[in-house]
């Protein structure tokens, strides 16, 4: 006999039958049709969310300095724990530093920022936030130091330079701002940096210095678009001779045939000459351009040339232009069609175009 | 003519100078008197001007009618009916309702008979036939609407996917083009001049940067330009400083760099104020979205909800079809 069922051994002990819990027998489902009102998954979720409780500790008011010290200690411990766990997570560091700043303890905040920059100095946002913190609390020299370090470590991040110079300028120290700009230009930044320097000088009406900076810009970045900007700057100040010189320098660049900006340069130059009312020069420029610029890249050029001839040329010159174009664009179908239209003087489209150009001319003359 | 006329003062034809009361008159007077007594017991002994009567009640013209809860309910139902139904259905139903109410009222109130003519048997039958006709018409219309709904596709609960919308547009445009005798490739001919102008403008514009590209070189430069436009240049202080300082136009290597300059307090104030303005502007960079309560909940948590929003933003347009199919229960054979 097994020990469990031995009568002597089981005397006084609870039998298996007694220890069995008597559950009610599950009734078999008789009606297997769908209930008339069904519950949806969305309803279940909604109920679950509604019945959730907010697991937040109750709000406590801090009454005296001891409680405040306790609260600060607790918070600091929390923050330090979090940053120990995830050192690279800049978000928590920044939160910690902002909290210390909100508590008014700038020294601690500074130390946190320094520790963070130890971890990751390549993140420009961290430098920005650090410097902004110093600026907000009116610590100018601290801010200057921070900016100086930032700009020394990350010289290719333009935003840091912008903000540094902006701060110095708004504090009224224009000479220092100039020095920082010079320091930046030594790094030969992108055109936007140069242009912001030029704008800075023009704000204080230092036209000669602006001119010098433009010279340096076109030496540093010898692209036609920057020549055009330079020339437009001179033209705006009515320095026609200088502008012309700039354009001529640009043409001497000997750009390759594939350059996208070559066409723009010629168009701008010719436009400038037209603005100076030098039609012969403009015509020469157009001819030269059409000879040198490859057919594929010269669409704008042709448009401008045609408009120019309609405005200033006689029929002979116009025919010339058309012949030139016809030679160059034999394969282009719609251009040919356009040219056909032009041959018929009673074509209303060309008449309308001519009228429109005449009107533009009149308005320009009025201005 | 008035001498010796036998006229009961309570007779309703008493004002007629040629009327003489007969037995019928006396009967009628007796009936009205008994009704008046019943009315008193029913607490309607008020003056006609002091009754509670809703102007919209159909028995308002009855000088002895007082609006009860039943009347108000009937008025409300009538109003609801009128708003719900449209076109000829409305008039049919409302007339029918009124008739039904009138029939009801004839059964309910005791004093309504004084205004209503007695319906003869034929008239009653006609009325019942009319009722049946109207009901039949109502049932027919409802069946028609249900059939139409079955034939058309049901409206999607989660919105139409871009693909479907494009297909529908193509079909519409195709129909229009066919009616004008055009080819699908010439669809632009249908544009008005304003629409065409708007299209050209859009082509010429560069697409605005979004997502991770928002703070690229160009946008940062533009932001700096905007910021520097607002600097007030103090030309007098500038010129004064120019005269005083021998090294006004400094090179990069100038030794004046680390020297401390005395900045006036107001400049520092200006800087701080400018910083605060920037902060305020920064807050408006992204706005808080409206919370739609009627939208379905598919999250168990706030974090879950946030995650679902992000996922929806990324994959929503691709999974729209699948979600619609799940909602419907079956996939469409498209």
What's the quick description here?
The complex is a heterodimer of chains A (367) and B (334). With 367 residues, chain A is mostly helical.
Counting DSSP E segments of at least 2 residues, the number of strands of chain A comes to 0
Structural class of chain A: mainly alpha
Question: What gyration radius of chain A follows from the Cα positions, in whole Å?
Answer: 40 Å
Order of helices and strands of chain B: HHHHHHHHHH
What is the helix content of chain B?
A: 55-70%
- Detail the poorly predicted runs of chain B: 107-115
Shape of chain A: elongated
The major sheet of chain B is characterized as: none
What does the model show?
The complex is a heterodimer of chains A (367) and B (334). With 367 residues, chain A is an all-alpha fold. Chain A is 69% helix and 0% strand. Chain A is built from 19 helices and no strands. The longest helix of chain A has 21 residues, at 65-85. In chain A, 26% of the residues are buried. By secondary structure, chain B is mainly α. Chain B has helices spanning 23-41, 69-84, 87-108, 121-151, 162-180, 193-204, 217-229, 235-244, 265-283, 302-328. Chain B: Keywords: mRNA processing, mRNA splicing, Nucleus, Spliceosome.
Layout of secondary structure:
The complex is a heterodimer of chains A (367) and B (334).
Chain A: H1 16-19, H2 41-50, H3 65-85, H4 90-102, H5 106-119, H6 124-136, H7 140-153, H8 158-170, H9 174-185, H10 191-203, H11 207-220, H12 224-236, H13 240-251, H14 260-275, H15 279-292, H16 299-312, H17 315-328, H18 333-343, H19 348-366
Helix pairs in contact in A: 4-5, 6-7, 7-8, 8-9, 10-11, 11-12, 12-13, 12-14, 14-15, 15-16, 16-17
Chain B: H1 23-41, H2 69-84, H3 87-108, H4 121-151, H5 162-180, H6 193-204, H7 217-229, H8 235-244, H9 265-283, H10 302-328
List key phrases describing it.
heterodimer; A: 367 residues; mainly alpha; 19 helices; B: 334 residues; 10 helices; 0% strand
